[in-house]
Automatic annotation (TrEMBL):
SUPFAM superfamilies: Amine oxidase catalytic domain. Its EC number is 1.4.3.-. Contains 1 topaquinone per subunit. GO terms for molecular function: copper ion binding; primary methylamine oxidase activity; quinone binding. Topaquinone (TPQ) is generated by copper-dependent autoxidation of a specific tyrosyl residue. The keyword Nucleus does not apply. This is Amine oxidase. Belongs to the copper/topaquinone oxidase family. InterPro entries: Cu_amine_oxidase, Cu_amine_oxidase_C, Cu_amine_oxidase_C_sf.
Length: 438
């Protein structure tokens, strides 16, 4: 349940208190927090109270962000910051996070949709019932011209918390006890109805700093597609009279990182190459190399390849540059268009570059309407990250009715944002770096 914690949050989390709270087990957010001193730095907001999301999870981590609604992109999250226990002030992660497009090409080549910019995704924001935001709060979203609501004030954005199981587990070195914590997440989600489909856009903020971004497709298969238009559609219903045309859902996210408050971030790619043993007493070796991505890139996922976005200025308490790693999700990349032909794009920020395809931004003539066109060799000083996750949807009998939610997405995970596991129990807080003498 999201409650108004402003008075507490504004006073931040003092280190000394956090240790006390952790020692006490930190099973509730309410108890120790009330004792926080008033001297900690104030939290500043770039949005009015109605557009703030602030959640202190019971494990001690606070997430803060602003939200707004865009006529095409739907919900956009801005100024996202993370404050785990032991940090005295919020750590900015992203200036903005939003969908960049949902591109839906049909296998028969007869239909191809850009759901965000061509089919009113934003106006398709629907009212949520209380039951579908368990334990949470539903915010009112102003949606001019809302398609599926009598009022333009749509009860459209749920914020709630959920348990995700173990955050960690460790048997004490002397075997006397088990250190364990059950992880908690802040969830922020809404639903946009586009034709027969209903897309759930879910943002999951874990207490360990990880952010999961997922789109779930549900609602109904479009009856108009029951025509085996691709010549191979999967039979739906009794016999084989109706065959649903297969298609892809290519979902793009657009991330504007602002680690430690600056969008002047750096991009790095890592690759690992495994070589055969060099002798009978050797094992295979694995060499990991870093490539600095200094210019715009259309990149592809590969075995043992990953990227991270690194702060230009911020360091953790170990003196390591703060960064976020991009953790790919399962994808079925659609090679049919240049803008879906790569898994990730890093482009130099331009305000007009808003949607991965069928862009509506007022870019200069000749700039191109899709993200692939914006990879032009420019030096990256303010990189924008575009992540493309595809799903080839071959319908099945179980897709009626309603269609079970099918999720696609990815994560970003902190790498050296804090000096240790942000949820480290006080008893283990001295175990950083070279192992202590027993
Ligand atoms: Cu589908």
């Amino acid at each position: 349940m999201r409650v108004n914690r402003n008075s507490r949050a504004r006073s931040g989390a003092a280190v000394g208190l956090t240790v006390t709270a952790l020692a006490a087990g930190l099973t509730t957010a309410a108890g120790p927090a009330t004792a926080q001193p008033r001297s900690a730095p104030a939290v500043t907001w770039d949005c009015s109270a109605a557009y703030r999301i602030e959640q202190k999870l019971s494990t001690g981590t606070t997430w803060r962000m602003c939200w707004r609604h865009d006529a095409e992109a739907g919900i956009i999250l801005e100024d996202i910051s993370y404050q785990p226990p032991g940090e005295t002030k919020p750590i900015k992660v992203l200036a903005s996070a939003r969908l960049g497009q949902i591109h839906v090409p049909y296998d028969d080549g007869k239909a191809e949709y850009d759901d965000l910019t061509g089919f009113g995704f934003g106006q398709g924001q629907v009212n949520l019932t209380a039951a579908e935001c368990p334990g949470g709060t539903i915010k009112t979203v102003k949606v001019p011209g809302a398609f599926w609501s009598e009022s333009e004030n749509v009860k459209g954005l749920c914020t709630t918390t959920r348990s995700r199981g173990h955050a960690y587990r460790k048997l004490a070195d002397d075997g006397s006890k088990v250190y364990q914590a059950q992880g908690k997440d802040l969830l922020v989600y809404g639903v946009n109805k586009v034709g027969w489909y209903e897309y759930m856009t879910e943002w999951r903020f874990q207490d360990d700093g990880t952010i999961n971004m997922n789109v779930g497709a549900t609602g109904s298969l479009a009856p108009g597609d029951y025509d085996a238009g691709d010549g191979r559609g999967w039979p739906i219903g009794n016999g084989s009279a109706a065959k649903a045309t297969s298609h892809s859902h290519n979902v793009f996210w657009r991330l504007n990182f602002a680690l430690d408050g600056s969008t002047k971030t750096k991009v790095e790619q890592y690759d690992s190459a495994v070589s055969a043993p060099t002798g009978p007493n050797e094992g295979p070796t694995n060499k990991t190399t870093r490539t600095k991505i200094t210019k715009e890139l259309a990149g592809d996922a590969k075995n043992m390849r990953w990227w991270r976005v690194v702060s230009g200025t911020g360091k953790n308490k170990d003196g390591h540059a703060r960064s976020y790693e991009i953790v790919p999700g399962a994808t079925q990349k659609y090679p049919g268009r240049a803008f879906t032909n790569n898994d990730i794009y890093f482009t130099e920020y331009k305000k007009c570059e808003q949607f991965a395809s069928n862009n509506l931004g007022n870019c200069a003539a000749g700039a191109g309407k899709s993200v692939d066109k914006w990879v032009g060799g420019e030096t990256l000083t303010h990189p924008i990250t575009w992540v493309n996750v595809g799903f080839h949807h071959i319908a099945r009998d179980e897709d009626q009715e309603p269609m079970p939610v099918h999720w696609q997405g990815f994560s970003i995970a902190p790498r050296d944002v804090t000096a240790m596991n942000p949820l480290t129990p006080a008893e283990l807080a001295d175990q950083n770096g070279i192992p202590r003498n027993q």
